[in-house]
Design brief:
Length: about 500
């Protein structure tokens, strides 16, 4: 299983010397109390560490430098308990290279009407302290996250938690390395992209490796290691040979496990966290990786088919954001266009991660009418029902565009006993026709990533952090406004 290191987030309160030592001590005490209770809530995926009170430009600048050079720090959370003159924050904020969340809150969630005095007012000045600080960040064009509300409310804590996951994904984005076995599928447009620009903008390293290099590693996998994986497989999934002779079934499954272990070793030895294959370039492999790719995605690796390195990296990124929960590489395949039943049936030739499976997946072996290789084993299952997002990343020539559609995944209304692949069915918002038109107008790819865990807001935050275009197709879609948005966006991004 690919692990993400345990990040922490540094929390500071802003103030100034004007209020005196006693009040500054109260600021520090309240800041620590908030941090302690945020950590105790159990809602935050990563620990928050209180770093005290910031009162001078020199102190703030040094603090931000320290954040940059501590790899374990995922980002900064700021709170203006009192009024903090924002000029003090300019240099430090400009130097900050990690995500910033402005928690616009107050220590108490009420006004103590019977006892309130001016000392209380002086201490609890976040109502205007936040505005002074917010102005500075807007002036600097930081695109920081703002969470507004009482820190003790569950909704506020959930917002902070979601941002932490995005911030970690931002940091980890610079460690995503995609291994391309072969090139992209011949003559296909949307899987192409500027790999240098992807590394500049998104931090992704994308490298080519000839398939022969992988074949050597796959061929060297020991039978003992395959035996061990086969036993685990039989304990986890349903072995379903169907009409296949026992020998053929077992041989196909074992070869997929050979590919799984070989690809994993190849990636791990070279520091890659995602990969893509191309059925047009399999010389030396007996099967297209099917079950192998599914198991690697189960373990947290990103994957893209037909050489689609953008969605290999995007799959890995969303798996980081989702803690590898219910997040899969996907492809639009076929449609139900009947009135009242409109839906998309998504799948791929073989490669859908079992993290979205409803029930226990079956391992089956079927012929694959593409690639000219032996019949590969694969996991077959129906996807879960539930709310989700579908995300695709496309190169628009000079810039990246992230397109997200809110969807509702549904259980198919009829069984599909002759479809030998894993699949997910979903209803796009606001409707299949409108969402489909908007997706195509925006240049959305046929490859995507579905996640039941990651939200559109999180992807908007990540896009803002990365400085890339974000397009969101929602239940409230207004097609005329959407077209205007795309036109204005094209103009804006060309001028940048």
């Amino acid at each position: 299983m690919l692990e993400v290191k345990d990040y922490e987030f540094w929390f500071v309160a802003g103030s100034q010397f004007l209020y005196g030592e006693e009040q500054l001590n109260n600021v520090a005490k309240d800041a620590q109390a908030i941090v302690d209770q945020l950590n105790a809530s159990g809602r935050l995926p990563y620990k928050v560490v209180c770093k005290g009170v910031m009162t001078t430009a020199e102190g703030i600048t040094q603090f931000m430098k320290d954040v940059n050079y501590h790899d374990e720090v995922g980002g900064v959370i700021t709170w203006m308990h009192t009024f903090s003159p924002a000029k003090n924050w300019i240099r430090g904020t400009k130097l900050l290279q990690k995500p910033l969340l402005h928690l616009a809150t107050q220590y108490l969630n009420e006004i103590p009407y019977a006892t309130i005095d001016f000392d209380y007012m002086n201490l609890n000045q976040s109502a205007h302290g936040d505005r002074e600080y917010g102005y500075l960040n807007a002036r600097l064009g930081i695109n920081n996250k703002i969470v507004y509300g009482w820190w003790g409310d569950e909704t506020v804590q959930r917002e902070v938690a979601d941002w932490q996951d995005v911030a970690v994904a931002y940091n980890e984005s610079f460690h995503i390395k995609v291994c391309r076995f072969g090139d992209t599928m011949r003559d296909v447009a949307v899987t192409e992209g500027d790999k240098v620009e992807a590394q500049i903008q998104l931090g992704w390293t994308v490298d080519y490796w000839p398939i022969g290099e992988l074949v050597d590693v796959v061929d060297a996998v020991s039978e003992q290691d395959i035996d061990a994986e086969y036993a685990k497989l039989a304990d986890t999934y349903i072995m379903n040979p169907q009409d296949n002779p026992a020998e053929k079934f077992e041989s196909s499954v074992r070869y997929q496990l050979r590919e799984y272990l070989g690809i994993r070793q190849f990636l791990d030895d070279r520091g890659y966290t995602a990969f893509c294959t191309n059925f047009q370039d399999l010389r030396g492999l007996k099967q297209l990786p099917g079950l192998a790719a599914q198991l690697l995605m189960r373990d947290g690796y990103g994957f893209g088919a037909e050489g689609d390195w953008k969605h290999a990296a995007l799959t890995r990124l969303l798996k980081i954001m989702a803690h590898n929960d219910r997040t899969v590489f996907m492809e639009d395949y076929t449609l139900d266009l009947r009135a009242g039943h409109e839906a998309i049936l998504g799948a791929h030739m073989l490669e859908v991660c079992p993290s979205v499976a409803e029930g226990t997946p079956k391992i089956e072996v079927h012929e694959l009418g593409i690639g000219g290789k032996d019949a590969p084993a694969r996991l077959v299952f129906e996807g879960k029902a539930g709310s989700a997002i579908v995300a695709t990343l496309v190169d628009m020539g000079g810039r990246m565009r992230l397109i997200v559609n809110d969807v509702e995944c549904v259980k198919p209304i009829m069984p599909m006993p002759n479809l030998p692949v894993a699949r997910v069915m979903w209803k796009p918002m606001p409707s299949l026709e409108e969402a489909g038109e908007a997706w195509i107008l925006a240049g959305g790819a046929h490859h995507s990533v579905i996640s039941y865990t990651v939200t559109a807001e999180q992807l908007r935050d990540w896009a803002n952090m990365m400085g890339i275009e974000f397009v969101h197709i929602t239940k409230d879609l207004d097609m005329d406004k959407f077209k205007d948005q795309l036109m204005l966006s094209d103009i804006m991004w060309k001028l940048k």
